[in-house]
Design a protein that fits this description.
- The complex is a heterodimer of chains A (185) and B (233).
- Chain A is an all-alpha fold and 185 residues long.
- Chain A is built from nine helices and one strand; from the N terminus they run αααααβαααα.
- Chain A has two domains: 84 residues; 83 residues, Arc Repressor Mutant, subunit A, CATH 1.10.10.
- The longest helix of chain A has 29 residues.
- Chain A starts with a helix and ends with a helix.
- With 233 residues, chain B is of the alpha/beta class.
- Chain B is 40% helix and 27% strand.
- Chain B is built from five helices and eight strands; from the N terminus they run αααααββββββββ.
- In chain B, the strands form two sheets. Chain B has a five-stranded mixed sheet, with no helix packed on it. In chain B, strands 1-3-6 form a three-stranded mixed sheet, with no helix packed on it.
- The chains are: A mainly alpha (185), B alpha/beta (233).
- β1 of chain A pairs parallel with β2 of chain B.
């Protein structure tokens, strides 16, 4: 079931009373969820993150009241349920579709295609952000630490906020590369 | 340390859940986790992990398509500016050589009726040999799953990770590549396992398009066979 605009509005309102801040918080919630399902080795972390967000939003639309300070623990609670359900589903699939598992093991990797997708997707990121990602990953050791601190100062944000911004951009890159690889295979 | 343990799957379930609840509630904690993940991938790419951590890393990060892509993305991002810097250096070197060459030619012209031939070639960065990773699962009786790789036209290396059967406990193995009709093409002895897998680098020159059998043996006995199909672009 897709998310209604009313449910989405309720979710944004629960994240923050300030519309712009709510948008940022929404992206952050999604990033945390994707990472959570990745760390738990799920096959489709993006889909599970969206499922979690849909459930939270629908409960809010159904009249449940959750204030901003409690929304994150609530999201985490829902995410845990989604994870357990996904594990159960995977287990059922393993038991009932054993021959199909061999098929899913087929893996085709094309290094040149991957490299092309990486560069195309990097180019698709608008300039200030593209340069920011490249600068963030330039250098090693002490020089890297200094560069990142300087970038945060330049942007007028704390270092941890810069880290989160970079990982949001990286997540966009991930999705773009996955789509690119899927469409070229 | 706890964050790193979490990333390597070493934390007990209750501690892992406590950490997850923390990073959901606290953005700074989440940022630390992201940083620790980058550090871990960088350490893996620069071969700075201990044997034990490397094995855990490979089990966690290289066992899912997303994990493999994460490692590949960070590697690409780290190489991008470096490559650009190298190209700038190569261009600068070519300009310096050209200027030096020109100066030498002027000096030499005063001493020789026929100017000596000075060939200045712009230096080009040596193209990196692409590595194509592939994971091969142990064959099941009668239905060996075939893994496939698509190789670029130029020289490349296939980084093959072979998942060993659970009963395999040898300290080292011999890996050999054969055509389906049993013709030996390549082999490597003394390959030590990392966890339940062994990794070998197979040069693309021995991999013509077709299907191959990769055989893993220890003490003269075959431990497992894998099937690999190769295509070229």
């Amino acid at each position: 079931m897709s998310l209604t605009s009313e449910a989405f509005e309720k979710l944004l309102a629960a994240l923050s009373s300030d519309r712009e801040r709510a948008g940022e918080q929404y992206e952050l919630v999604r990033l945390k969820l994707v990472r959570y399902f990745e760390f738990r080795l799920c096959d489709e972390p993006d889909a599970l993150a969206d499922d979690t967000i849909d459930r939270v939003a629908r409960r809010l639309a159904g009249g449940e009241r959750i204030d901003a300070p409690h929304i994150m623990p609530y999201v985490y609670g829902v995410a845990r349920n989604v994870l357990l359900e996904s594990w159960k589903k995977s287990e059922r699939r393993r038991q009932t579709l054993l021959p199909a598992i061999s098929e899913t093991r087929l893996e085709t990797v094309d290094a040149e295609e991957q490299d092309k997708c990486f560069h195309d997707c990097l180019r698709a990121i608008p300039e200030p952000n593209r340069d920011l990602v490249l600068q963030y990953y330039r250098d090693r050791g002490r020089a890297k630490i200094d560069r990142r601190s300087a970038l945060a100062r330049q942007l007028g944000i704390p270092l941890n906020a810069l880290r989160i911004r970079i990982h949001r951009l990286k997540n966009r890159l991930h999705r773009c590369i996955e789509d690119c690889m899927r469409s070229s295979s | 340390m706890t964050v790193r343990q979490y990333l390597l799957g070493e934390l007990p379930a209750d501690e892992a859940e406590r950490l997850e609840a923390e990073y959901f509630a606290n953005d700074d904690r989440f940022a630390e986790l992201l940083e620790a993940e980058d550090d871990l991938i960088e350490a893996y790419l620069s071969n700075a992990l201990t044997v034990g951590d490397r094995s855990k890393f490979e089990q966690r990060f290289l066992s899912t398509p997303r994990g493999r892509q994460k490692v590949a993305l960070l590697e690409s991002l780290e190489q991008s500016p470096n490559r650009r810097a190298w190209e700038t250096f190569a261009l600068a070197a070519a300009i310096v050589l050209a200027i030096l060459g020109g100066a030498l030619w002027f000096v030499a012209r005063d001493h020789h009726a026929v100017p000596p031939k000075i060939e200045v070639r712009p230096s080009k960065p040596i193209p990196a040999i692409p590595h194509i990773p592939v994971t091969l699962a142990a064959a099941e009786r009668g239905s060996a799953p075939t893994s496939r790789v698509v190789l670029p036209p130029r020289d490349s290396v296939v980084d093959a990770t072979l998942i060993l059967p659970t009963a395999a406990h040898a300290k080292s193995y011999t890996v050999s590549l054969q055509s389906v009709d049993g013709r030996p093409l390549w082999s490597m002895a003394g390959v030590t396992p990392r966890g339940n897998a062994i990794a070998v680098e197979i040069p693309s020159r021995v991999l013509e398009p077709g299907t191959f059998v990769i055989s893993v043996s220890a003490g003269g006995a075959t431990v497992e066979e894998y099937s690999l199909t190769v295509n070229r672009r």
